[in-house]
Write a structure and sequence with these properties.
Length: 404
Amino acid sequence: MIVLAQTGDGIDPMFIFNSVLQGVFNGVSIGSVLLMAALGLAIVFGLMGVINLAHGELMMLGAYSTFVVQNVFKPLGEGWSSVYIFVALPVAFIVSALVGLAIERGVIRFLYGRPLETLLATWGVSLILRQFVRSVNWSLAVGLTVFCGLFFGAWVVLSRQGFWPRIKQWAIGVFLVLSGAITIALFLLLNRYDNLSKPWFSARNVDVTAPAWLRGGLPLGNFQLPYARIFIIVLTIVCVVGVFLFLNRSRWGLRIRAVTQNRSMSACLGIPTNQVDALTFAIGSGLAGIAGVAITLLGSVGPNTGQNYIVDTFMVVVVGGVGNLFGSIIAALVIGVVTYIVGSGTIPLLLGSLQSPVLQPLIDITSFFESTSMAKVLVFALIIAFLQFRPSGIFAPKGRTAEL
């Protein structure tokens, strides 16, 4: 909420200018987080038509990865603690990418062409990931590691044998039962010890401390531009440039664009569409992890952190045009700036500075939306009105997505 600074002649014009500039800057930083998250979602949705409701939880995993990296660097001293963010970025990307790859290989690949089923399946995955973060401890981590080692180890060893195709169906069931039984027994045994059964994170929010060089801000007039938000904007620019170069300058980027345009023709030309799907989902998930790192610089992190951003992220994808990079950039910045300016009360301040009684009804209406929740309601209404005229978003999708 903005507090008015008045002079003898009314509201100080310089204060109004600084308030608007600050509102735009903060809105751009929020839009930058949405853009990082929307980049991965737009690529996945544009290529595979998958509605991934677990995308917010992938952001949450990136945020928790940052928290873990910070705790690893803390005992090493202030010098190391100031650079932990540069280690957290690749760690968050890798963790989220691997989890996304597991989701694609274990769930999504069986549901291609069935968007409603993918919506329900990924919603279930999001609930599992949230509960996993609340409950994970050493006994659960060891149990999952043992299960994966036994199940997939047996699979890899026997799949190299000539008789594997004949026994594959019942062998998988046997592996699953035996590995599960051993894992449950081990988990119950380890869970008796308090130091192994204590949750790592629990349901409470955790705080990530920004490095010393990201604290404070750059003086500009009567306010400061926080270094943390400047870092988020720069990080977003790097991600956008990286995604653009990958899609337009690399061999796999060319394959992704080809599959997006025409999957059947790409398969006929020898492009491994299954590998393209897996890589795309992993990259999109990794970008969500990087967005999770940016979230830690804006506030505390909890199991429900991703749910605070997933709806806004989908709005960016829909308004920008599914699979369109430039449209996502415009939509993210506009949604971020409008949400912040409306919620912070900047519009009533501007209108009030004109001191016109004709504008008083408009001032009262905009003052009603001076909160984050009400600002989102107004943005939703504006987006619904916009989609009545542009149902395909700012830039209509092309290729295979347009045919879905």
